[in-house]
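Structure ticket #2291
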Amino acid sequence: MSRVALGIALVVWLVAACSTASVSGSARPSAGLTVYAAASLKSAMEAARTAYTAAVPGVTLTIATDSSATLRTQIEQGAPADVFLSADQTNPARLVDAGLTDGDAVDFAGNALVVVVPSANPAGIATPADLAVHGTKIIAAGAEVPITTYAARVVANLAAQPGYPTDFVARYDANVVSREDNVKAVVAKIELGEGDAAIVYDTDATASNRVRPIGIPTAANVSATYAGVIVKASERRAAAHAFLDWLAGPEGQAALARFGFAPPS
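Resolution: structure written out below.
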C-alpha cells in the first residue's frame, strides 16, 4: 500500500473511531426537555423533575409554568416546548385538533376545588354561600384560564343547592373585583389580603400557609382533569413521550400525590 493510501485509510479509521466514541458511553449527549406546565403544577413539577432525572440519568428538564391557555397560545406561535401539561383537557385538545401534537392527549392528574380566604378572614366568610353577599371581594382568573371554567361550573352547581339564592351566579359575578393571569396569581392576591375570597384548586390551598380553605359541598364540587401532550415540533419526541408516560405511571403519580394531586378520573 502506498504512503498516500495508508494515510487516507488512517484518517478514515480515526474519523470512524471518534464518531463511535461521541455517541457511546459517557460521551453520549444528554436529552434536554422543555416542559410547559400549568401554574398549579409548579411545586409538583419541581419535585417530579428531581425524581425523574434521578431515575433517568442523562435527561434534564426545564420547567416553565403559567396559565394553560397562555402556554397553549405560545406553542401555537412556535414556542420551543417538548411537553405541554395542562390543568384541563380543553387546551391539549385544541393542539391535537390543530395537528400540533405527536399523538393524543394523556390524562395524568386530578384535582378538586375549594374556596380560600385570607388567614385572618376579615370578611367573615363561613360557607361558599357568602360569596354572594354584597360587597364580598372575589378574586378570579381570566376567561380562558382553566380554573375559571371549573369555578363557573362550581358556582352553577352551588346555585342549585338548598339554601342558595336563585340569583347566586349573578351575585357571584357582580362580586368579582379582579381577574388574574393564572391561579397562582389569584392565590397570591388572597394571601396579601387584596381580596376576600377565591375559588382555586385544593392543591394550591394546601400549599399556602397564608390562606384558609373553606370546603365546597361534594354535590357541587367538580373534578379538574389534567392532560398532557407531546409537541409535534419537538426534536426529542421519544424522550418527551418517555417522560409523559413516567408522569402518568406509578412513579410520577407518587410524585404528584405528595402535593395533593389525585389520579385522573
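Closing remark: The chain has two domains: 29-110+225-257, 111-223.
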